[in-house]
Amino acid sequence: MTDKIRIGIVGAQFAAEFHADSYRRHPATELAAVAAIPSPEEFAGKWGIPAVYDDYRAMLDREKLDLVSICAPNHLHHDIAIAAAEAGCHVVSEKPLATTVDDAREMRDVCRARGVKLFYGEDWCFAPALRRALSIVDEGGIGRPLYVKAKECHNGTHSPFAKDKKTCGGGCLIHLAIHPIGWVLHALGKQGANKVVQVIGHCNGGLEDNFVHHDNSGEDFALGVMVFEDGSRAFIEGNYITVGGMDDKIEIYGTEGVLKADLTFGSNLTVYSRPGYGYCIEKADTTRGWTKPAVDEFLNLGYVDELAHAVDCVLRNREPAYHAGADLGVACVEIVHAMYRSNEIGAAVAGSWG
Ligand SMILES: NC(=O)c1ccc[n+]([C@@H]2O[C@H](COP(=O)([O-])OP(=O)(O)OC[C@H]3O[C@@H](n4cnc5c(N)ncnc54)[C@H](O)[C@@H]3O)[C@@H](O)[C@H]2O)c1
Predict the structure, then answer these.
(1) CATH code of 131's domain
(2) What separation in angstroms does the CA of 45 have from each of 36, 83, 303?
(3) Residue 199 and residue 339 in contact, taking contact as beta carbons nearer than 8 Å
(4) Which of 25, 174, 201, 205 is the 20 to 30 Å CA partner of 313?
(5) How much distance in Å is there from the Cα of 270 to the middle of ligand 1?
(6) Which own/partner contact pairs does 109-117 have at CB distance under 8 Å and 24+ positions apart?
C-alpha cells in the first residue's frame, strides 16, 4: 500500500456523493475508480476519478484498490462485498449490511476469513451531536439511561430499488429505522455486552395496506421496541409519511436527566425566504418561508467521520470500532428481521442480539 489509500466506489448517485465528498476531505485518500450502471462518466468527471466501469467485477480485477465503498442497492451489498474481499480489498458497506440475515453473516465471515476489514456504515454513530450526547451520558450527566426514543422519518425514498421489497429487503423498517436500531445498539448495547433480548415490530403491510405509498411493496410505516438484558428499552420509528424534510431525532431518559438531539432540524442557521433558495435539508420539498438549512449536512449526519474512521483503520491496520464494524451490521439485520417476524405473528420475539 502507498501512503494514500486507493478507493473504489460502487454506485454513483445519492450515497456515492457523500462517500466521495467525505473521502475527499481525508488527506490520505485517492478516489481511484468508480463502477455503476450505466457507466458513471458524469460522477467520475465531477470528482476527478480517473477509472470508470460499468461492471464492478472488472473494476476489482483491473484496479489495485485498498478499500471499496458499496453505495449500490441493498440486495447487491452481499455479492459486491464478497467479490471485493476475494480481490483482497477492505470493504465499507452502506446500510443495511444486507437484505437477509444469512447474507449479512456470510459477508462478515468471508471478510474475516480473507483477512480484510468490513466496515458497517452507520453514520449516526459518528454524528457529532450524537457523539457529544453519548459523552455526556458516559460522564454520568443524566444518570443511568433507562429509555431511548429514536427515529428516522421522511416523505418517501428517491430510489426505485428501495420501493421494492425484493431489492430493499423490506420497506422503511429496514431502509430507515435501521439507523435508530444501529445507534440504539451503540448507545445502550455496551459494545455487544448488553444484548437485546426481546423485540416487537409493528408495520404497514405494503402496497394497498400502506398509508400513502401504494406503489411500494415494502411498508411505509414501522414502529419497533427493543428490550435490553439490563432492562433498558428503546422505541424506534421509521416512516415515509413525514412531510417537511428528513426528521432524525433521539431522546435519552436517564435516572438523573434527559437528553434530546435533533440531527436534521437542529441547525443554528435560520432563514426566512419569500422566493426560496437552492437546498435546505434532505427531503425538504420547499425552501420558502422559515427554514433551518443544514450548515454541513454530510458532517452533521456523521458520514465524514465514519469514513475517516474507515480510512484511518486501513492506514494503521486497526480493527473497526464496534459501532463501525460487521458485528453491529449483522445485529441490525437480525433485529430488523426479528421485528418483521413479530409483526407477522402479532407477538414479541425473544432472542439475543448485539
Ligand atoms: N447512510 C445513509 O444515510 C444512506 C443514505 C442513502 C442511501 N444509503 C444506502 O446507500 C445505498 C445506495 O443508495 P442510494 O440512495 O445511493 O441509491 P441510488 O438509487 O441513488 O443509487 C444507486 C446506485 O447504484 C448503482 N447500481 C445499481 N446496480 C448496480 C450494479 N449492478 N453495479 C454497480 N452499480 C449499480 C446505480 O447505478 C446507482 O448509481 C443503499 O444501500 C442505501 O441504503 C445510505
Answers:
(1) 3.30.360.10
(2) 14, 26, 22
(3) yes
(4) 174
(5) 31
(6) 110/81, 110/82, 110/85, 110/86, 111/81, 111/85, 111/326, 112/326, 114/85, 114/86, 114/88, 116/84, 116/85, 116/88, 116/89, 116/90, 116/91, 117/90, 117/91, 117/310, 117/313, 117/314, 117/319, 117/320
Residue 2: CB atoms within 10 A of its CB come to 9
Within this chain, do residues 54 and 146 fall inside the same structural domain, yes or no?
no
The pLDDT assigned to 318 comes to 98
Task: Check: pTM over 0.85? Answer yes or no.
Answer: yes
> Number of structural domains, the chain?
2
The CATH number linked to 51 is 3.40.50.720
Q: Residue 12 CA: which ligand 1 atom is closest?
A: 39
Residue 28's pLDDT is what? 97
Taking the C-alpha atoms of residue 70 and residue 60, their distance in angstroms, rounded to an integer, is: 12
State the residue for C-alpha cell 439507523: 179
* Nearest residue to 216 (alpha-carbon basis) of 239, 234, 184: 239
- Residues 241 and 210: their CA atoms lie apart, in Å, by 10
pLDDT tens string 168-225: 999 999 999 999 999 999 999 999 999 999 999 999 999 999 999 999 999 999 999 9
Taking the CA of residue 15 as reference, the ligand 1 atom at the shortest distance is 16
Residue whose Cα lies nearest atom 11 of ligand 1: it is 71
Nearest CA to ligand 1 atom 34: 36
Tell me the C-alpha distance between 33 and 40, whole Å. 10
Residue corresponding to grid cell 467521520: 305
Identify the band that residue 3 occupies on the pLDDT scale cut at 50, 70 and 90: confident
**10 Cα–ligand 1 center, Å:** 8
Cell numbers 444486507 correspond to 98
Residue 26 lies in domain = 5-122+313-321
The rounded Å distance from CA 109 to ligand 1 centre is 23
How far, in Å, from the CA of 242 to the mean position of ligand 1?
A: 22
Q: Do 176 and 123 touch, CB atoms closer than 8 A?
A: no
The cell for 258 is: 434527559
Ligand 1, atom 4, lies closest to the CA of 15
